[in-house]
Design goal:
InterPro entries: ArsI/CadI-like, Cadmium-induced_rsp, Glyas_Bleomycin-R_OHBP_Dase, Glyas_Fos-R_dOase_dom, VOC_core
GO biological process, one term: response to cadmium ion
CATH architecture: Roll
Order of helices and strands: EHEEEEHEEEHEH
CATH topology: 2,3-Dihydroxybiphenyl 1,2-Dioxygenase, domain 1
Pfam families: Glyoxalase
Distance between the termini: 9 Å
Structural class: alpha+beta
Radius of gyration: 18 Å
Organism: Actinomadura physcomitrii
Protein name: Glyoxalase/bleomycin resistance/dioxygenase family protein
């Protein structure tokens, strides 16, 4: 089963766990220092809570789609790169107390999305304390210069700004692809991404 992931960075982890347990009527599926996740059945959602700074308001950390296996991550990577998006692949990476394969993209507003699969449990939130100090923490903001992974479809040789991450050239408007429309107004070229078998 595939499901959407919403990762929030929260200042009050215990209070957030209590609130979301009541909201969704379920206890966390995984609870570790500075981290909790909920595997919500209805609606299908993976809610991740990551402990932030004590004085910061809750904010979205990243979004994701959890899939059932590495083959589906590979399929998503191909689909995204074929669509012209800049992707970052990470295989056998330790993140959120799990060993994962994943691919990252950024939406037009800079919001990070990952398509990932969990291969096994891990003992740490991120790769290591040194990675966190270098800005290479679990689920952190990435640029090809800060993460050691495979980047596909770079449109510039020197990644220096968010527009590069979005696959756009500074000063140029974003491309607006034309989509064929049927007589009833529905898009005719739309095929849903395959998130599961």
């Amino acid at each position: 089963m595939s499901r959407v992931q919403l990762a929030l960075r929260v200042s009050d982890l215990e209070g957030s766990i209590a609130f979301y347990s009541k909201l969704f009527g379920t206890e966390p599926a995984k609870l570790r220092p500075g981290y909790a996740n909920f595997a919500i059945t209805e609606p299908p959602l993976k809610l991740v809570l990551i402990e932030g700074e004590a004085d910061e308001p809750t904010r979205m950390d990243h979004l994701g789609v959890e899939v059932e296996g590495s083959g589906l991550v590979t399929d998503a990577t191909k689909r995204l790169t074929d669509a012209g998006l800049v992707t970052l692949e990470e295989n056998d990476t330790s993140c959120c107390y799990a060993l994962q394969d994943k691919v990252w993209v950024h939406g037009p507003g800079g919001e990070p999305w990952e398509v990932y699969t969990v291969k096994a449990d891990a003992d740490t939130l991120g790769k290591s304390a040194a990675d966190s100090a270098d800005g290479d923490a679990c689920c952190g903001t990435w640029t090809p210069s800060t993460r050691s992974a495979t980047v596909r479809n770079p449109t510039r040789s020197a990644p220096s700004d968010a527009l590069w991450l979005l696959g756009r050239v500074p000063g140029e408007p974003p491309a607006q692809p034309r989509r064929p429309v049927a007589d009833d107004g529905a898009r005719t070229d739309r095929t849903a991404p395959r998130w599961s078998h």
